[in-house]
Amino acid sequence: MSLPPNFSQAVDLSSLKKPAADVTSPLPGIEVTPLNLQAEVLPLSNTKPVVVICWTPRSSESVELIRMLGKFEADDAGQWLLAHVNIDEQAPVAQALQVRTIPYGVVFIGGQAVPFLEQPLTESQLREVVTKILAVAAQQGIGEEPVEATEPEEDEALAALDQGDYETAEAAYKKLLARKPHDSYAKLGLAQVQLLARTHGVDAAKVMEDAIKHPDDIEIQIQCADVEVMSGYLEPAFERLLRLLMVLHGDEQKIVKDRLLELFALVDQADPRVIKARAQLANALF
Predict the structure, then answer these.
(1) pLDDT tens for each residue of 164-190
(2) Contacts of 15 (CB under 8 A, 6+ apart)
(3) CATH number of 30-139
(4) Looking at CB atoms within 10 Å, which of 21, 59, 163, 263 has the fewest?
(5) For the domain with range 152-285, which CATH number is right: 1.25.40, 1.10.150, 1.20.1050, 2.60.40?
(6) 146-158 confidence digits (pLDDT tens)
């Protein structure tokens, strides 16, 4: 990493307005200074990723982030290293890292600095970021590809699916969500299992034929949308349920809306088809 000409200048984040942090106990990780940045931190990044968090005692969020990463570092048993920069005491380092906000994160991989964080993250979000960092580093020959640990409920669900036991698989994912309500993989797994259960043994050709004959039959139309999604026909499925939403009210409209949201959960939320359908859903409801 080449440092900018103004390396010795102080970074000015005096406008920072956040709750003061409790830093009576030492923070985990290496404290970065102008002396060890190039002599120690950068060389270490040639063997494993070095995650550097810029913080200040004026921000409790930044301190909490470092402590959370400290737990991850210990769990990962040496796969990567944690370091931190107190911008109030090490302004030249903060200037070199081009700190713009707090907390601010940079990862060094093979001597190259890659910014990766400019705002506080939840524990699950932060865990995902660390996993991605390890994967990117491994692709560049630094460290090893991370092996993602599965949850016991997920293992139970997958084993049940191998036996075609959708009921047990669904119950397992629901247990996982009760324990970790924001687990995106559990939400996706549950939606997939429920779709598999609803379409198991269904005569797809007959369902689609019945849907043509009975365009206003809510149950048949919802079932047909399930079949279409299973077959990869996302847009026809979304359009089918959106058409119903336009003409229904009350409880019937809610039934269709809930199913549509379940189908959305099966697809990448950045998919243009989902984005378009979500906009149409909002227009239909509001």
Answers:
(1) 999 999 999 999 999 988 888 888 899
(2) none
(3) 3.40.30.10
(4) 163
(5) 1.25.40
(6) 666 678 999 999 9
